[in-house]
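Entry type: protein chain
Record version: 2
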Amino acid sequence: MKGLHAIINTTRKYDNKLRLALLKYILRCPLIRSKGRQRSFLLITSAILILSVLVGCSPRTQDLEAVKYTPLPGDDWKVSTPAEQGLDPMLVAELYHDAAKLETLYGLLVVKNGHLIAEGYFNEGSVDQLSGRQSATKSFTSALVGIALDQGCLSSVDQKMMDFFPEFAGQISDPRKEQITIRDLLQMRAGYPWEGREPPYFDLIFLSDNWRWLPHLVDFPLTSDPGTEFQYSNLKAHLLAVIVARVCDTDLMSYAQEHLFSPINAKVGDWTRDADNYNWGWGEIYVTARDMAKFGLLYLNEGEYDRKRVVSADWVRESLKRYSEDINFTGWLSSKLGRYFRDIGYGYQWWSARVGEHYFDFAWGHGGQLIVLFDEFNMIIVTTADPLHHLPEGKGWKHEGAIIDLVGKFIKSLPKP
């Protein structure tokens, strides 16, 4: 039993819950009733391995109590605490404890019941920081399509794409392109290729012709019939942005500031344009983490902000429906994203997933830009991160995946209401 005493003494420096879990395991272990140095060695080795796993997953209580995540001063958010909003403060502390270890995370915010309850910035991040939010931009573009419908600039999501691009009408050789609708573009089901999986198209769209994207609606082939197959595409999102700018007779950034951002007390810092002077519908909108959270709150409240209607509730509901299910990013694994996100779906430029029994919708951009809408808990989680311009999508996944797993682990820790 000397080995057991040594283990008990070793565990004294760890959290009490951790010690109790380990000791219960040891006392139930058949090895404890055996004799011999070899079995004693195996017991000690097994205990050490378990300790190392448990310690790596569960920080000590005193470490969590030292974590700071109190929202910074400011008058643009109602501020509260996790406990006041019915959330375990230790779960939030563990979230921020884990966040501090990530190399490319800029910002992390948690909003519950309309109150900012946790806020922290890391690495190059700050409350005023602006950087490209990458494909999270697509969800903003989707909102602008809905606002254009509300205002009558657009009459229906069933209007045909080519109606808005008459300059290319005589160049279309595939008659299926005449049938592509705004709805198909919103759902990523227009038939154009999934650029990230097709190197020629990825290179063409990002590395040639000074980012002049509109001609690609002609020269990019359809790899499926419109309306039939989900294929994620930056081109589709950009075409939506150009359509809104054209039918509303304005540039998209000005339109967004007037009709989306100003009503939610937010601001567009910048928004990259293509060679034809259209703002990129797929990415590179520059907004702060706090303003991303305001956008999330708008959608969590079905299109209202501070009791003002900004976008119709019907549009929000339609946007967050799942038109594509079980989206597979790898081609050989199941529908998942990182260690925790499962059953990936897609609406109108919004993603959806589950972690365990918790279901949620989210905007997602390369590098780890997230706006998570967690209706079940009336909660929003926002992350901002290095957009990883210097790394291709595959090589940046180590960092992006770590941020997604950070959020997934936190969601998994939440109890079922």
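Comment: The radius of gyration is 25 Å.
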